[in-house]
């Protein structure tokens, strides 16, 4: 990044004859203007964060939830567990971080899907969408049965 | 009594953006945004280790500020933040 690139970024939005200060500029003024105290803000490496976290949302219904089929052709609900040590999970709100090595439990195929989902949630697990489950493929090493 | 020293200052990649500074820390892969006072603390400790009192005195003189207990507390918090980020380290002085 160069000084020229910084200068090329529009700091102000011109609306009619009025000048509106962009939030970006306001933030820069806050940082620069605060000379009376030391300021430090840290940007975490996106790559490092991506390596160490698996953020997922919650499936809104059992229909939407990821499932696998056992050898008898019965559907097993996919249950994953937020990493209790992940800083991201301290808010207790989605998305949840499943940690570096997500743990997946599969429901008992002989039970109704709703019952499997209830057991999963009662065990502190969450249901995720099939798409989210696909993104975890290759990272999940810990499969267990509920 | 303890004093602070810089840690890995030479490895930092520092860019000056008109009085604001981006500091890339290769060791952690993190980028820090500092104002002038934040960077001065790091640069000062790279020159020589210093106690909180010495750091506060230098900053208050350089930035023409009044050094009081509140200012000292803020600097102490910053030092602990820098320490947590691995930018500085604390050493004990035996007197």
Describe the structure.
- The complex is a heterodimer of chains A (146) and B (95).
- Chain A has 146 residues and is an alpha+beta fold.
- Chain A has 5 helices and 10 strands.
- Helix content of chain A is 28%, strand content 24%.
- In chain A, a hairpin with a 5-residue loop joins strand 5 (67-69) and strand 6.
- Chain A is elongated and about 70 Å long.
- Chain A starts with a helix and ends with a strand.
- Chain B is α+β, with helices and mostly antiparallel strands.
- In chain B, the strands form 2 sheets. Chain B has a 3-stranded antiparallel β-sheet. A two-stranded antiparallel sheet of chain B has the order 1-5.
- In chain B, strand 3 (20-25) and strand 4 (30-34) form a beta hairpin.
- In chain B, helix 2 crosses helix 3.
- Chain B is globular, with a radius of gyration of 13 Å.
- Chain B starts with a strand and ends with a strand.
- In chain B, 23% of the residues are buried.
- The mean pLDDT of chain B is 91.
- The chains are: A alpha+beta (146), B alpha+beta (95).
- Chain A binds chain B through residues 1, 3, 6, 28, 31-32, 34-45, 47-48, and chain B through 15, 17-20, 28-38, 40-41, 59, 63, 65, 71, 74-75, 78, 81-82, 85.
Order of helices and strands of chain A: HEEHEHEEEEEHEHE
Radius of gyration of chain A (CA) equals 23 Å
Number of strands of chain A: 10
Overall body shape of chain B: globular
Radius of gyration of chain B equals 13 Å
Return the average pLDDT of chain A rounded to an integer: 70
What fraction of residues of chain B sit in β-strands?
25-35%
Structural class of chain B: alpha+beta
Low-confidence stretches of chain B: none
Biggest sheet statistics of chain B: 3 strands, antiparallel
């Amino acid at each position: 990044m160069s000084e020229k690139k910084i200068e090329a970024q529009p700091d102000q939005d011109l609306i009619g004859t009025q000048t509106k200060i962009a939030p970006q500029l306001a933030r820069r003024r806050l940082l620069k203007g605060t000379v009376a105290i030391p300021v430090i803000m840290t940007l975490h490496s996106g790559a490092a964060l991506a390596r160490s976290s698996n953020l997922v949302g919650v499936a809104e219904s059992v229909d939407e939830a990821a499932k696998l089929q056992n050898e008898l052709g019965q559907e097993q609900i996919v249950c994953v567990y937020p990493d209790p040590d992940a800083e991201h999970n301290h808010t207790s709100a989605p998305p949840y971080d499943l940690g570096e090595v997500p743990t997946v439990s599969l429901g008992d195929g002989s039970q109704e899907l709703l019952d499997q989902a209830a057991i999963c949630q009662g065990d502190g697990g969450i249901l995720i969408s099939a798409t989210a489950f696909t993104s975890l493929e290759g990272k999940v090493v810990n499969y267990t049965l509920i | 009594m303890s004093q602070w020293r810089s840690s890995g200052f030479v490895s930092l990649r520092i860019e000056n953006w008109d009085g604001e500074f981006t500091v890339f820390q290769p060791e952690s892969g993190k980028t820090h945004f500092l104002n002038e006072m934040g960077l001065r603390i790091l640069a000062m400790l790279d020159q020589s280790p210093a106690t909180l009192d010495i750091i506060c005195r230098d900053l208050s003189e350089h930035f023409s500020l009044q050094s009081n207990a509140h200012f000292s507390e803020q600097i102490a918090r910053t030092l602990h933040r820098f320490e947590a980020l691995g930018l500085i380290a604390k050493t004990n002085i035996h007197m």
